[in-house]
Amino acid sequence: MNSEWSPDEDRLLDAPTIRPYVIARGRTEAQDRFDLISLAVTIRPTTGTEIGLDPEHQAIVRLCRRPLSVAEIAAHLDLPAGIVRVLLGDLFDRGFVAVQQPQPEMDVLDERMYKAVLDGLRAL
Amino acid sequence: MAFGRSDSGKTPPRMPTAIKLLIAGGFGVGKTTMVGAVSEIRPLRTEETLTDRSVGVDDLSGVEAKATTTVAMDFGRISIGEDFVLYLFGTPGQERFWFVWDELARGALGAVVLADTRRLADCFPSVDYFERRGTPFVVAVNCFEGAPVFELDEVKLALNLSQDVPIMLCDARKRESGKEVLIELVKHAYGKRPTAAAR
């Protein structure tokens, strides 16, 4: 039996699934940290020489010059949302991005928020 | 050089408050169409991966060999001035993706349940889900050509909706129509908000 690697073995690896987990180094624990609509914005650009930052990290930092949600980052980079959460956690911990979580309960902003949203929708 | 956390370093730029709205309903009822009609961006697609934590809860019979399943969701956005941004998520049509629904519904302001009178039963799971979860929702009957025309009261009865759930006709392809549905939803959610109920 031929024990040499053959390109066919690629098929055994579900590449589109496995690759993101390699990017996140198998970590999934940060998945609950950010919501799909948590907004991230870059507060410090990368120099491209930082240790431990992958091209995907750099891509997020470049992308988030304006605030973008986890869902948008995932869509633009074509990565599963769970992986984006892990990468975003790294960037947040190292001070490259600020992350704003959505309001869990809209109590304080309540009246103002509903009114602003209604006015905004009517003006569309 | 120390790595400052974002909350101890310079003030982060002012960010809008993100608000989540859901567009639910059966497969092919026009969820993505409605998202696209009202969104300021072309609808984007994001994927959630079904991992171990949800296996065993969902009915994955027949797919045991596959360790992960991805669920795609289409979404759009509407910026409201500088302060707020609405994200509209089309919920995955299949009921076995409840784990995604739970995440989507968490913190959502409300939901639109799109209904098709030719396949009314398709929206039952969505109605049940939001009722059970206490998420404010409205029902919008998408007017497909050739679909039987019912009085909204009849549809309301068929769906066994509580009296206060707004129901309306819509055309998911039209921006103006989608906008009206969203306005109705936000008005309804305002009346149902926790602080309002406590008063």
From TrEMBL, chain A:
Any Pfam family matching the protein: DUF742
PANTHER family per record: DUF742 DOMAIN-CONTAINING PROTEIN
Protein name, as recorded: DUF742 domain-containing protein
Classification lineage: Bacteria, Bacillati, Actinomycetota, Actinomycetes, Streptosporangiales
Automatic annotation (TrEMBL), chain B:
Leader peptide range in chain numbering: none
Organism: Microbispora hainanensis
Family of the protein in this entry: Belongs to the GPN-loop GTPase family.
Top-rank taxon, per record: Bacteria
Alphabetic keyword roster: GTP-binding, Hydrolase, Nucleotide-binding
Protein name per UniProt: ATP/GTP-binding protein
One term of GO molecular function: GTP binding
